[in-house]
Write a structure and sequence with these properties.
The chain is of the alpha/beta class. It contains 12 helices and 11 strands.
């Protein structure tokens, strides 16, 4: 049985949408057992009783606008997020899912669960929209402003395991986001990363990838530092939103466009579904000693169910254990 801890109080629509997502997940996956941390009274209003769901009263939550999450995490050990992550630390569960604040999630994972032994950095990794017939991983998108070449190598190794075991891509291609596709391009860290990735047997390295190709490249994994990744992700989200607004305004202003929309309605509906964050479920935190999935703060029940499904697959695929084996090999080689 796959055991997961759930932070029921994190997110814009907690606990209602979180609990409804739990109901959906319990119905869909018969191999999960969930320990839910949150306000028992509020949870009871929405939870469908099930023997595979245990509720532990933890009514306190870390506010979405918390300005000092480090202090709050250290000061209040009874928040639903801290309790859920402590369950991972104590090996009571194999992973945790939260829709709480991103910064608090990353900090709590570092302070409570902690990184895998030998892992130099952790990274936040979302799945990009399924354009061009495949989902791609993008990391880091904010956990680290800067990364060294050795960090990028480790995170590429972790992402490769995740892509194989969770997303069922047999031999995933790793691309290094850069200002040009030719070898030798970019900053010193990019050049060093290119060299390390090219030589590592655990990574199927494609080479440099320009950001303009991130939705069309053959690569399954795109890697860069957290500052660059976050800028790229938010720019892409902004462009998608602007295009949607433009199309909506243009269609409403033209009779011909309205007629065209009737014929293209299914295409637009499919595109909206592809771009929806609900389909993806959230981002996974790579590098800590347990599975952590950060669902979107505005998660619906469907989105949160998908986040639970993502954590389930990561546990089932023994992602942590397989990365530990690589880290052990690297230690032996350096001795």
């Amino acid at each position: 049985m796959i055991k997961l801890a759930i932070d029921a109080m994190g997110g814009d629509f907690a606990p209602e949408e979180i609990i409804k997502g739990i109901n959906l997940a319990i119905e869909e996956y018969d191999d999960i057992q969930l320990t839910v941390y949150g306000d028992e009274g509020k949870i009871a209003k929405f939870l469908i009783p099930n023997e595979r769901v245990m509720v532990i009263h933890a009514p306190d939550a870390i506010d979405m606008g918390e300005k000092d999450p480090i202090r709050e995490i250290r000061r209040n050990k009874e928040t639903s997020l801290v309790r859920a992550f402590q369950a991972v630390k104590d090996n009571e569960v194999q992973g945790a899912v939260t829709a709480g604040p991103t910064q608090a999630t990353i900090i709590a994972a570092h302070l409570i669960i902690r990184r895998l032994k030998g892992m130099k950095r952790a990274a936040l990794c979302p799945t990009l929209p399924n354009l061009g017939g495949k989902n791609r991983l993008l990391l880091d998108v904010g956990a680290n402003i800067e990364l060294r070449a050795e960090h990028i190598l480790q995170l590429s190794q972790f992402a490769s395991i995740y892509m194989r075991e969770v997303m069922q891509v047999h031999n995933p291609l790793v691309g290094l986001l850069n200002i040009g596709s030719e070898p030798g391009k970019g900053r010193e860290v990019d050049k060093e990363s290119f060299h390390l990735l090219s030589a590592d047997p655990n990574v199927n390295f494609y080479g440099n990838v320009e950001p303009k190709e991130m939705f069309t490249t053959n690569c399954d994994i795109l890697i860069t530092d957290g500052y660059t990744g976050n800028m790229i992700m938010k720019t892409s989200e902004g462009v998608a939103k602007a295009v949607g607004t433009y199309l909506k305004e243009s269609i409403s202003e033209s009779f011909k466009a309205k007629i065209g929309y009737l014929f293209m309605k299914d295409v637009f509906k499919d595109f909206k579904k592809i771009m929806s964050a609900d389909e993806i479920g959230g981002a996974t935190l790579f590098g800590v000693n347990g599975i952590v999935v950060k669902a979107h703060g505005s998660s619906t029940a469907f989105a949160f169910k998908n986040a639970i499904g993502k954590a389930r697959l990561a546990v089932k695929g023994r992602v942590i254990e397989k990365m530990e084996a690589i880290l052990s090999e690297m230690v032996e080689e350096n001795e």
